[in-house]
Sequence to fold (351 residues):
Amino acid sequence: MRYIIHGAGAIGSLTGGRLAESGAEVALIARAAHAEAINERGLIIRDQKGDRRVMGLTAVTSPRELKPREDDVMLLTVKSAQTAGSVQMLREVFSEQTPVFCLQNGVRNEELTARRFLRVYGAMAGISATLVEPGVIAHTMGHLVSLGNYPLGCDETALVVAGQLGRAGFKVTTHDNVMAVKWSKLILNLDNATLAIIGSYVQLGRVKPQISRFLAEVEDEGLRVLAAAGISMVDERNPFNLSQRLTEMRQLTENPEAIRQAESLPSDLRTYPSTWVDLKMKRGETEAGYFNGEIVLLGERNGVPTPYNATLLNIVEWMAAERLEPGRFKLEELAELVEQRRRKLYEPGDK
Fold:
């Protein structure tokens, strides 16, 4: 198989780089500066063990630079807002029978892809990476990848790709209902906005009780909405136990040593969510509408108030539009804005 990674930024480059290390043939479709650096010097993957250089990758800037082959497998790793345009671009070059794995956050990418390709797969990336500079990425956290056919099933192609990803060093699970896993991951992604707004990162959020408890409330609100909407996250191999996660987040106690270790992490190895990066880069948009916005919309449809997610969505969209950097609000200020929205929802005379 030849693996074509369309949208090879941080996650796509990490996946492609590890696949190449395991002996797979890989072509990256990336932005010009990144592609040029990889073709000239290889891809550098940075983690807590240091840097290593991956050679033998092909990097291009457009699908039209690749000649289609019958053994092609595509991994789509663009942001959700770019999915429709990317799928159209890919379909102009590749057959509708080409397998496409949506290795993306959010739950709408598979549906969009299935409008142009016949063999679509859901892929959940429980990994975090950062594009440090062209040709250099940092793998900051996680090795989990979950795969399955969209909407249901797990065929031979999914199993073959799972095996190759496993040889590449990922912890891979396969599923008959992979969208249950992707809905579970969406709940985790609701907190991307929180960390971006307060200017924090995942490792610190995991050890600071005040942050952890706020994150738990955001996720719990999302779970209540999905329950009301009748959206199941049941799959016998679902790697996420969200109920246990919430309990642990709420019971977290102060640990000065754990906080010190999190604060001493080099900036390259801190896990900043994509929303934080979007604000930092002043891109004018984020994926919050595909995460928190999904919950707000489902909440409105099913009569479930969403003061946490609605507040986060409104603030992030305002920050993106105004080109404001992460850290515009302190956690206490953010919590007060949520409380103001909650009080407004329950004012006398309101339902």
Q: What stands out?
A: The domain at 2-176 is CATH 3.40.50.720 (Rossmann fold).
